[in-house]
Backbone:
């Protein structure tokens, strides 16, 4: 068993031992679960990430309202411990089936729906302070990677310079016991929102000319992609550039990469890249690059509402960001990355990105 | 330029030359576009695929209702020809931006929305008889592959036995000029619906023990995955097994892999695998494998409606298929692949699949 697995197992075992000790001492067994509500989420100005505050709530065994959740917490904990011991990983959907039993001869099930087991997993993550991936649970497999790095995935050496047009599929679990970084010549990481843009840049061998690692997350990057980008930034000291659509959804994607999300505030520390740079598309790009009027898309009411919300985010309060968002709102239009193709199919590879990088034209 | 690209270019050039010849002869220039309506789609009993009938419609240049579409057809054709000449590929979204212009000083655009350019692409595909991929256009990148095969992708050698936990990302264009098959020891292809199941089977090295190629398409497989499976079947004579959820959506996924879809009937010949085998989950699996009652999911009204529709499909008219669907409808419940985990996390790898394969327990 590797070091991470040993550590996570110890955390799970300690959780159980504490409860046993309480029971042996004649006390009502309880676990303290950090509160995952909005009221307990804050933006840490210094670290520049969204994180969980210190509020906790007790989950008691002898309490009619909490007994079931108490049982579920340990059921999930036991299943994760077993997964780790067997060296296997599974999806959260699978875990639901793994731990679903009918109790005795009753019609009562341990879980009725996955909506019941998912929050228990999140509770367990915060309670024992272990990422879902460390509990051997995974989310969806999405996103691809190519570029100037060699890495090891489950013992297989992956030379990302020789991954063809498809690239290496970024797995959902990218912890150090699964993925190790080897030789690299990359000077930065470029994370793009869309697989079509990834394909364009890969076909043009952008990563080779500019010595980088190119990744896409197929829209909002899944946990595996975010965690991998975090590790590349953290362990290899590579700057991270993000390229998204010029619309509130694109800005939101960037914002989650940068400081984490409110929902999963407890994992920002290991998922977020506070210094991630917003490369584009900027609300000023249309003028700066002379794009035609006909490639813009009218904002919807929902876009406008979300744009205005963003103005209130503390991580968008610096002047350059306010200018970005206000300009977008004022123009009333959105711009997709693909709109750059109106200037030529490889305009993005040959003109747009090199100019942005050369001139340091990004926001942080 | 490779042979495929040369051939496709010739087809596009011929389309244009025909029109020029008509104009020179003083006739109203026209192209004949095979009709893609439901009325012109049929199930070919002999080939066992859904295909387009012989109906065609004329698209005339001097016709107020058709002039714009006529122009659009050639605009898209010219763009595709250029793409092929440059050796570049692009997304259909990109193509929309590439070909969108404002006409002169009018406010008239060549295309207003992508919904206008997409059907033109499909028209062009059927008219010149070339797959979208041969026109250098791609859909989404989705799906991964691992297993006992070495292939070449854009000049890079991909050993799918050494692709770690993530696998090789199946690109959207997998034509012979991009992807070539090299050495393989695989005895069959296993196409699974879900990435979580792919991960489970890959972690257990199912493909190594059973000598196969393992692919998932992240739900409904994208064109790249379907076309690749078709090529593996066709060129390497590998049987194809499909593993999907036991619900109407899962059956539909299988059905599209097998005989194509009504929407894209004109490409069945090069995408469908009429002899693809349905390995599961069968409506009889719950009893056969002693799964607990609590893992079933109630069918919705929509499920029932779709199930009943399937009974009318000519490709499901054989008795074993009728029994399958009728059983599902009668039980009123669905069963996900993940439900097998209630019997143990690797039950699918160690028991379910080996038993099915050993006993020839599938439908065709």
Residues:
């Amino acid at each position: 068993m590797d070091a991470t697995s040993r550590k996570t197992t110890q955390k799970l075992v300690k959780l159980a031992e504490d409860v046993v000790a309480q029971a042996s001492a004649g006390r009502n067994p309880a676990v303290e679960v950090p509160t995952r509500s909005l009221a307990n989420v804050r933006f840490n100005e210094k670290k520049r990430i969204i994180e969980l505050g210190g509020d906790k709530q007790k989950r008691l065994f002898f309490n009619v309202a909490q007994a079931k959740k108490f049982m579920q917490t340990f059921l999930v904990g036991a299943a994760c411990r077993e997964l780790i011991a067997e060296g296997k990983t599974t999806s959260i959907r699978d875990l639901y089936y793994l731990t679903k039993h009918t109790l005795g001869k009753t019609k009562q099930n341990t879980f009725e729906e996955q909506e019941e087991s998912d929050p228990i997993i999140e509770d367990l993550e915060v309670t024992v302070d272990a990422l879902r991936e460390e509990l051997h649970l995974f989310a969806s497999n999405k996103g691809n990677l190519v570029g100037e790095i060699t890495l090891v995935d489950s013992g297989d050496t992956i030379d990302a310079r020789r991954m063809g047009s498809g690239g290496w599929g970024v797995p959902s679990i990218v912890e150090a016991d699964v993925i190790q970084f080897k030789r690299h010549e990359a000077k930065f990481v470029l994370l793009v929102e869309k697989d079509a843009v990834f394909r364009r840049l890969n076909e043009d061998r952008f990563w080779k000319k500019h010595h980088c690692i190119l990744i896409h997350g197929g829209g909002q990057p899944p946990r595996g992609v975010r965690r991998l980008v975090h590790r590349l930034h953290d362990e290899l000291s590579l700057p991270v550039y993000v390229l998204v659509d010029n619309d509130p959804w694109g800005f939101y994607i960037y914002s989650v990469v940068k400081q984490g999300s409110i929902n999963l505030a407890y994992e920002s520390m290991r998922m977020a890249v506070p210094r991630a740079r917003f490369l584009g598309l900027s609300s000023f790009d249309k003028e700066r690059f002379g794009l035609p009027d006909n490639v813009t898309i009218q904002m919807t009411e929902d876009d406008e509402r979300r744009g205005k919300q963003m103005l209130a985010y503390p991580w968008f309060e610096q002047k350059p960001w306010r200018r970005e968002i206000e300009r977008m709102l004022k123009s009333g239009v959105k711009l997709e990355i693909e709109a750059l193709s109106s200037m030529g199919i490889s305009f993005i590879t040959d003109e747009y990105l090199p100019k942005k990088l050369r001139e340091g034209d990004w926001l942080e």
